[in-house]
Amino acid sequence: MSLTAQTDLDVIEAGSSQPLPFDLAKPSISVIGLGYVGAVSMACLAHLGFRMVGVDISRDRVRAIRAGRAPNVEERLGELLAEGAAAGRIEATQNAIAAVLQTDVTFLSVGTPTAKDGGCDFSYVRLASRSIGQALALKTAYHVVVLRCSVPPGTTLDIVVPEIELASGKKLGRDFGICFNPEFLREGMAVADFFAPPKTVVGASDARAAELVSQIYNAIDKNVVFTSINVAEMVKYVDNVWHAAKVAFGNEVGRLCKSLSIDSHDVMDIFIKDTKLNLSPYYLKPAFAFGGSCLPKEVRAVSHIAGARGVEIPLIDSLIPSNKAHIREALRLLDRHKGKRIGFLGVTFKPETDDLRESPTLDVMSALLANGESLAVFDPNLDFGPLQQAQIAYVRHAVPAHAAIMDALKGLTVRSADELMRNCEVVVVSHATDHFRKAVTDRPKNVEIIDLARLFKSLPQDSAYRGIAW
Ligand SMILES: NC(=O)c1ccc[n+]([C@@H]2O[C@H](COP(=O)([O-])OP(=O)(O)OC[C@H]3O[C@@H](n4cnc5c(N)ncnc54)[C@H](O)[C@@H]3O)[C@@H](O)[C@H]2O)c1
């Protein structure tokens, strides 16, 4: 089928009359949805020498793209589209079926707006997937579909694939492959971001599909991150939520600083210089709640300063409630172990310290103790010497909710991790140390583990192991 053929579906006039310079080493690519994302993909991939066929339901967008004009304001977009159109590498049509049939790969970049219920409106994704399926029904060669839309995890495999399979009668893996390849461009610098992406992530249904997509990105990113489709979908959402959290955080700091006659930019200029703790992976891996002598205290202090000045800082104010929700989740994991002897590996607020102040593990232990559960604990950093006793007395006084567990702590403490494992039916691990990792690996098999600290990179395939956030 040719894009220039007049079929029932071919509602747009003929494309470029120039012969297409096919580069057989490169797959040809159709792009369904020529909005901000799709138009940039068309322009940049054409610049890299790919033969591109764009599809949109908007006649005006199709006309703009095939004429080599930018359909929206974007630096260099018009220039690259004009270059691609002049070279005969860019075509555009309203006929998705024809476009898919003429290409090896289809990028799907239709809109995914917010639905009435606040979730994702899948209607454009469904319709476009059905068109792809209708085309695949007519195609014998293997085809790869690449979803570029930002969608909730599960969309690619639970919505896109079933729509394609139903409309085509074809099977994923055998007749077509699917990838989720999130788009990370920023409007206004989308072309520059395309050629120098912060990362390239591909979740693929199979190796053949992954290989084809990595070939497409070879010229701009040789370090494609391959992962599962669900992880790739989630990465995109997490990225944007993080960016929103950064903006909201910066703005809350700004309003608070202004109320104190402090220049927020002076503060944040210094803040961002710290790439060890502030702008770094540190503190970002899911594990247990924060605690210790500084974080909870200072979050409370900042909320207090803002409250006294009538400055709204809902993000910062939400940190303590968020931390409490995480502590409640640890208790929820222990719900089904009522009446068993529960051991704790690690009780100080983090590993490699003897500091018990505001340790979130003490919150968990206090709640269990109040419910009459039988507890035991081992922490190599507790010696119950005079200095430790002084701190216990301090914690007892400073945090009344921890008084009972402070009184009981010494009596609950056993001499080793092995002894704890031998004497408990359930063990909660609060610190990810080599010592505790070994104790969990070597434990009697009947001991159930609740991991609050992420002991292992690869999750144990073990029904007696549960993690708090993985
Ligand atoms: N805009 C961004 O900066 C950005 C960045 C990263 C990811 N994303 C995601 O990429 C996706 C596309 O975003 P966008 O901003 O380009 O959207 P957009 O609304 O600008 O463009 C979507 C295009 O799809 C077309 N379309 C809808 N249904 C179609 C169909 N069945 N067949 C053909 N065309 C169809 C629309 O006419 C429109 O031109 C969204 O999921 C978005 O969340 C956007």
CATH architecture level-2 label of the largest domain: 3-Layer(aba) Sandwich
CATH superfamily of the largest domain: NAD(P)-binding Rossmann-like Domain
Number of domains: 2
* Biggest sheet descriptor: 8 strands, mixed
The name of the CATH topology of the largest domain is Rossmann fold
Average of the residue pLDDT scores: 94
Number of helices, where a helix is a run of at least 4 consecutive DSSP H or I residues: 18
Strand content: 5-15%
Summing up helix and strand content along with how strands pair, one would put the structural category as alpha/beta
- Binned, the helix content reads 40-55%
What's the shape? elongated
Strand arrangement in the largest pleated sheet? 3-2-1-4-5-6-7-8
Strand tally is 13
Unreliable residue stretches: 1-24
Unique ligands:
nicotinamide-adenine-dinucleotide
Rg of Cα set:
29 Å
Which CATH C-level class of the largest domain is it? Answer: Alpha Beta
Report on this structure.
The protein is an alpha/beta fold. The chain has two domains: 29-227, NAD(P)-binding Rossmann-like Domain (Rossmann fold, 3-Layer(aba) Sandwich), CATH 3.40.50; 322-467, Rossmann fold, CATH 3.40.50.720. Helix content is 43%, strand content 11%. The protein has 18 helices and 13 strands. The protein has helices at residues 36-47, 59-66, 77-86, 96-101, 123-136, 155-168, 190-195, 207-217, 229-259, 264-271, 295-309, 314-317, 319-334, 360-370, 386-398, 403-412, 417-423, 434-441, and strands at 29-32, 52-55, 90-93, 105-108, 143-147, 176-180, 201-204, 225-227, 341-345, 374-378, 426-429, 448-451, 465-467. Strands 3-2-1-4-5-6-7-8 form an eight-stranded mixed beta sheet, with helices on both faces. Strands 10-9-11-12-13 form a five-stranded parallel beta sheet, sandwiched between helices. β11, α18 and β12 (448-451) form a beta-alpha-beta unit. The radius of gyration is 29 Å and the shape is elongated. Mean pLDDT is 94; it is low at 1-24.
